[in-house]
Amino acid sequence: GFSEEMAVDQSLHSPYGASKLASDVMCQEYAKYYGMQVGIFRPNCITGGPHSGVELHGFLSYLVKCSTTYNIFGYKGKQVRDNIHALDLVKAFYEFYLNPKKGEVYNLGGGRENSVSILEAINRVEVILGKKTEYRIVPKPRVGDHIWWISDNSKFISHYPNWSITISLEEIITEIYASTQ
Q1: What is residue 180's DSSP assignment?
Q2: Are strands 84-85 and 46-47 parallel, antiparallel or unpaired?
Q3: For the chain, how far is it from start to end, CA to CA, in angstroms?
């Protein structure tokens, strides 16, 4: 029989993560039971110019706009995130809208090309903005944080070959900075 050792069991999700998991599964069930044209999207690090990041959420926006010392929580700043511009995500939604696939689940993010560690992001921000970013490493990671995440967009691209990431990490950083001026 099945034990209680499934991936969702006995792991830390945070209330936010648990609510996302619950809604994800509910949408899958409604699509399958009732034949609804529902797609389940799991986007990662959605960002862009007007994004209002805060210290514990929306790291890239917060980093670019940070006017104080930037705190890196855990993992020595080597945790990796992939960043997807909101416009690229909306374009993915539109492709799905044009040709929905009932109950399909898609991870969507910036993929490898828009992935960066926190330390690499600081370096890129310094180069693009032409100014030094003060930071400190807080040894304890955020509760429920993950060390590494890069989305595999290949399933979505196989279903919707007209879609791709169109906005690079450098363009995202530049746009976020421009929105502060």
Answers
A1: H
A2: parallel
A3: 60
